[in-house]
Design brief:
- This is CoA transferase.
- Keywords: Transferase.
- It comes from Taklimakanibacter albus.
- The chain is α/β, with parallel strands linked by helices and 407 residues long.
- Helix content is 37%, strand content 15%.
- The chain has two domains: 272 residues, Crotonobetainyl-coa:carnitine coa-transferase, domain 1 (Rossmann fold); 82 residues, formyl-coa transferase, domain 3.
- It is built from 16 helices and 13 strands.
- The strands form four sheets. It has a six-stranded parallel β-sheet with strand order 5-2-1-6-7-8, sandwiched between helices.
- Helix 1 crosses helix 6.
- The longest helix is centred in the middle third of the chain and has 24 residues.
- It starts with 8 loop residues before the first strand and ends in a 5-residue tail after the last helix.
């Protein structure tokens, strides 16, 4: 495999999204990722549809959800509840650089697959645990799911229409926000731990929590509270620190205006036909505009309805004023910039099943990503991995299959 991590092997014990998102990134970067799944069942997300793939024989295949986070991996079906399965996983960990898991706190200890057990057989191992609330604290034993973490972690309190307006209520993001960010932080942590190991020869344990990650990505909104002492509120599509930075209704839809400095504001008001607004002492600077938000927006609403969205974008872009449309997802993939960047990728399984996907956004100049392995069918590489990595004979593999230790 190509990529900057081509000499790294990852034993992936995760399922659903946060962990698989991280290991898919590692696979994109060239790591060998061995995805462990329960024989006959596999990752829960294989069934999280519709929509589903259609197999060459016309039967229902894997769900789109599963395809979103499992590109580039090899599926090995092992039953960790069986002693033989536990031994196989311990042997795979002995021959791996990274283990990633998202079981409940302490859930793998009874299988001999916890960090201390695997560290004893592979001191250089990087072991990453992903849970809802982390390994410590009063919530450590609680299950954590993205939706509830979005609520507990604050993002829903600042997402949605303002109180007192139509449709006002807390709203979650349209994707699993906490899961995806936790997967990104897990990837960053693993890469840092591998760098540390390169310098010292030491492995280490990584403790990732969905709640921690959700709080971390509150970003400027967290600091707005920590510095200002007031909890931010929902502003709809407006920005707490920049004005005007929101959506406006146009003659045929909506447009995003993202004025980031005073020059842009002056240019914007000229194009909108209200240049005098930029000279109003209430609106001279961004801090003035934030303090007088309601008065300013009231002066802009009607002028913005006088042109169509495309006309606004053409005029504003010509003046270097940031703006844009609100695309539906089908429009996203039809966008010429998205097409030019090759963000829609399609891979084929061995049986010919085509699996669409979205390209990794990281572009390496020296070690480019090669998209060569589709999200695997359940157990597609069980025998091959056990023979290649652990040196098992066909007879040994056959006995394991007969005992239902592997699938």
């Amino acid at each position: 495999m190509a990529g900057p991590l081509q000499n790294i092997r990852v034993l992936d014990l995760t399922r659903v999204l946060a962990g698989p998102w991280s290991t898919q990134i590692l696979a994109d970067f060239g790591a060998e990722v061995i995805k462990i799944e329960k024989p006959g069942e596999g990752d829960d997300t294989r069934g999280w549809g519709p929509p589903f793939l259609t197999n060459p024989d016309g039967s229902r295949g894997d769900a789109a959800y599963y395809l979103s986070a499992n590109r580039g991996k090899q599926s090995v079906a092992i039953d960790m509840a069986k002693p033989e399965g536990q031994k196989l996983l311990q042997d795979l960990a002995r021959n791996s650089d990274v283990v990633m898991e998202n079981f409940k706190v302490g859930g793998l200890k009874k299988y001999g697959l916890d960090y201390e057990s695997l560290k004893a057989i592979n001191p250089k191992l990087i072991y990453c645990s992903i849970t809802g609330f982390g390994q410590t604290g009063p919530y450590a034993q609680r299950a954590g799911y993205d939706f509830m973490i979005q609520g507990m972690g604050g993002i829903m309190s600042i997402t949605g229409q303002p109180d007192g307006t139509p449709g006002a209520e807390p709203v979650k993001t349209g994707v699993a926000f906490a899961d995806v960010f936790t997967g990104l932080y897990a990837t960053i942590g693993v890469l840092a731990a591998l760098h540390h190991r390169d310098k010292t020869g030491e492995g280490q344990y990584l403790d990732l929590a969905l709640l921690d990650s959700q709080v971390a990505v509150l970003a400027n909104q967290a600091l707005n509270f920590l510095v200002g002492g007031k909890a931010p509120k929902r502003l709809g599509n407006a920005h707490p620190n920049i004005v005007p930075y929101q959506t406006f209704a146009t003659a045929d839809g909506f447009v995003i205006i993202a004025v980031g400095n005073d020059r842009q504001f002056r240019e914007y008001t000229k194009i909108a036909g209200v240049p005098e607004v930029a000279q109003d002492p209430r609106f001279l600077t961004n801090s003035d505009r934030v303090g007088n938000r309601e008065a300013l927006i009231a002066l802009l609403v009607e002028p913005m309805k006088q042109r169509k969205t495309a006309e606004w974008i053409a005029a504003l872009e010509a003046a270097a004023v940031p703006c844009g449309p609100i695309n539906t997802i089908d429009q996203v993939f039809a966008d010429p910039q998205v097409e030019a960047r090759g963000l829609n990728v399609t891979l084929a399984r061995a049986d010919g099943t085509k699996t669409p996907g979205v390209a990794n956004p990281v572009r390496f100049s020296a070690t480019p990503i090669e998209y060569s392995t589709a999200p695997p069918a359940l157990g597609n590489a069980t025998e091959e991995v056990l023979r290649r990595v652990l040196g098992l004979t066909p007879e040994q593999v056959g006995k394991l299959r007969d005992s239902a230790s592997i699938g």
